[in-house]
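Format notes (please read before filing issues)

Several people have asked whether sequences and structure tokens are stored in separate files. They are not. Every record keeps both together, in the order shown below: the sequence lines, then the token lines. Line labels are part of the format and must not be stripped during preprocessing.
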Amino acid sequence: VQLQASGGGLVQAGGSLRLSCSASGRTFRRSLGWFRQAPGKEREFVAAISMSAGSTYYADSLKGRFSISRDNAKNTVYLQMNTLKPEDTAVYYCAAGYGSSLETYDSWGRGTQVTVSS
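Then the structure lines:
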């Protein structure tokens, strides 16, 4: 599976961004997830969605502000990020795998930078 993330940028605190992850290859029996990595920090799970069942998973700290969705016809996953905070600044990566653990994702796209200014 090859993944291409897009949609990052610079936004003021309180603003919104929508990231897109376009996948090529078989994803139907897998999940597509978003992870992020801030400078000096480890990569962390953000959200994931099962491409078959549509089940969603979120990092507890991001529930209510972030929303993940999918378009199976386009083999694309979206991450809607609302009420952004400076601490959301990170490189956001799209990955294919299972569940919500970084170790269970084996296909990674290049990240997209999200910068939230205060």
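For reference, the curators noted about this record: The chain has a mean pLDDT of 96. The radius of gyration is 13 Å.
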